[in-house]
Amino acid sequence: MSADFKQILSDIHKRIYHPVYLLCGEEPYYIDLLSDAIENSVLNEDEKGFDQTVLYGRDVEAANILDYAKRYPMIASHQVIIVKEAQEVKTLDDLSAYADKPLNSTILVLCYKYKKYDKRKSLAKIVEKKGIFFESAKVREDKLPGWISAQVESRGYTISPKAMIMLADFLGNDLGKVDNELNKLFISLPKGSQITEKLIEDNIGISKDFNIFELQNALGSRNVLKANRIINYFATNPKENPLVKNVNLIYNYFTKLLIYHSLPDKSNKEVASALGINPFFANDYHSAARNYSFEKIVLVISLLREYDLKAKGLGSGTADEAELTKELIYKILH
Asked: Most exposed of 48, 69, 98, 241 (fewest Cβ within 10 Å)?
């Protein structure tokens, strides 16, 4: 059956297992969590040595996986077969016949990462009926702050809105990377603490004053001095502030401003809902919209498309990223 992450994880913790798991999708984070939960909880340490096998897709074919899956456990009630990087198995769909009539004593976990598994294939259809088919979708960048907030709260902490945006903008929607950085903070903080911009600056290395979030604020308020200070800082740290990434984030910001102008109801609640932002930031959009007319935003978006191409080496001549960034910011502000 198709199931959601929380339900699958809950069943694993309750020791409710299925004979075949096909875990696929563009976001590896949830695939890893489910695979790790099975790997760490089904068998005890003594049993693992006899009845748990981890295979890697680049080293095996479907026939090899089938040989392992058809074995009976030696000392435990189940044997666990985990195939990591299953997307490397070219003949994976050959497991369809086994998935249709699996051994109840085998738990076969196929970790098919970084892309969807074609649901039209027989393996997917059979696993949906007789096992667990799970598709792990990428979290959209505009949903990432909310995901971070939920993760923090689930661990017994809180996070300031600005700190949340700093993390989202700096780390992007690589959930494993975000989770890893959050765990570093949790280790050093007592339960109930708030994660602030200062804590992120001190522990993760993101400047609370010179980051893309602050650049967006400077652009929104048309603060030329602040914007120039930030892009000069970016020029000294080009690897952490690539132009392609920054253009994309600024583009998202101005796209939201464009949507703002079209809203009939510009109350904080409606703005937050329509733009997918924390209500805390609604006033920033009120101010920015006064500084940028609908027509000006359209021009800015056109500029961003132009500089996105230049950042990718199309029509930029000999200009480096620092020069292109300065040109772009100047044209947006003037």
From this structure: 48
